[in-house]
Every structure is written in structure tokens, then in C-alpha cells.
């Protein structure tokens, strides 16, 4: 039953967005240069057409070696990122969860030199339409995302990711 509900929601979601964005069914790309005190890097976003997943790749340098760091997309500005981008009022979760915020991207893991590489094919992140992530802020956090398994208020809201270490605006 849950599978049918999920498929029904995704179909309705896609149809609703597609109907309002018929002229945006072309390739789109965007990027974000992220910076922090000692952290720099770039994320790239590519979407073949509106109904496609968005391919997100990134490389970040200066992270804590051999540690995972939460990654998310926020409303607000570079000067003042606000809550995680959540146009559908969902709970926090991991990128594999149906029930999650659009901005919940999981973790980026650093190697022993402090370089983190990220790659995901993301169904909820869009580069056009009313729920576009363009002009949103992508953030790299101090702690790994616990995907709301911690059951504390902070875990349920943000994954207990802690402070923002680096951030950048998604632009095309």
C-alpha cells in the first residue's frame, strides 16, 4: 500500500510541476562555490529536463579528515541561511527517504587529506519551476547527518548536523 501511495504522490508531484513549467523542459545546469574559514569547493547541478533527476556532484577541500559532514540546501541568503528548503512541509530524512525535505542531501565524507567528494542522482531537487533550488544556499555542516534517527528535537529537525562550516549560493 505504501508503495502505491509513494508512486501516486510522485506522479501527482511530477504532473503538477510539469503542467506549470511546460517551457522549462530543457537541459539546465547550475553550480555553487562554497567557502568557509578553511574550506573551499564546488558543487555542480545538471538536469537533462524538468522530469529528470538532478545530478549533483561536488568536491570540497579543508574538511575534517576521515569524517562525514551533513550537506543541505537552505532558504535564506548567504549572509543568513534559514531552515532547510522544505516546500512540501516534510519531516527530516535521508536522501533515500520518500518522507524528507527537498534540501536533505545526506553527507559528504572526507578522505584522510580532508577532501570530500559527493555524487547523487536527486529526484526532488529541481533547477526550474516554483520549487527550484536556484538562489538557495547549499551548506556543509560540522557533524554528520543522523537522518533523524537520534530522536532528539535537533535530530528530528536537522539531523543534528551542527554549525555551518561552509556555504555557497546555487546559481546558473
Overall description:
There is one protein chain. The chain has a single domain, classed as Immunoglobulin-like (Sandwich), CATH 2.60.40.200. 15% of the residues lie in helices and 37% in strands. It is built from two helices and nine strands, in the order αββββββββαβ. The N terminus is likely disordered. The longest helix is centred in the N-terminal third of the chain and has 19 residues. With 172 residues, it is mainly beta. The chain is globular. The protein has an eight-stranded antiparallel barrel. This is Superoxide dismutase copper/zinc binding domain-containing protein. One of its GO terms (molecular function) is copper ion binding. It holds the Pfam family Sod_Cu. It comes from Stentor coeruleus.
Instruction: Supply the CATH class.
Output: Mainly Beta
Poorly predicted tracts of residues: 1-22
Cα end-to-end separation: 39 Å
Question: How many domains?
Answer: 1
| CATH architecture annotation | Sandwich
Classified in CATH, the superfamily is: Superoxide dismutase, copper/zinc binding domain
Q: Could you give the count of β-strands?
A: 9
Mean pLDDT: 88
Order of strands side by side in the largest beta sheet?
1-2-3-7-6-4-8-9
Amino acid at each position: 500500500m505504501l508503495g502505491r501511495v509513494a508512486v501516486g504522490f510522485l506522479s501527482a508531484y511530477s504532473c503538477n510541476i510539469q503542467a506549470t513549467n511546460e517551457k522549462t523542459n530543457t537541459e539546465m545546469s547550475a553550480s555553487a562555490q562554497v567557502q568557509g574559514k578553511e574550506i573551499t569547493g564546488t558543487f555542480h547541478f545538471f538536469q537533462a529536463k524538468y522530469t529528470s533527476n538532478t545530478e549533483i556532484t561536488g568536491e570540497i577541500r579543508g574538511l575534517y579528515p576521515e569524517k562525514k559532514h551533513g550537506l543541505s540546501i537552505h532558504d535564506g541568503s548567504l549572509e543568513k541561511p534559514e531552515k532547510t528548503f522544505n516546500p512540501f512541509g516534510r519531516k527530516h530524512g535521508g536522501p533515500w527517504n520518500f518522507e524528507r525535505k527537498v534540501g536533505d542531501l545526506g553527507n559528504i565524507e572526507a578522505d584522510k587529506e580532508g577532501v570530500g567528494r559527493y555524487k547523487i542522482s536527486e529526484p526532488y531537487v529541481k533547477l526550474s519551476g516554483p520549487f527550484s533550488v536556484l538562489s538557495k544556499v547549499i551548506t556543509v555542516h560540522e557533524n554528520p547527518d543522523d537522518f533523524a534517527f537520534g530522536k532528539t528535537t535537533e535530530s528530528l529537525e536537522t539531523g543534528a548536523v551542527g554549525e555551518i562550516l561552509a556555504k555557497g549560493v546555487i546559481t546558473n
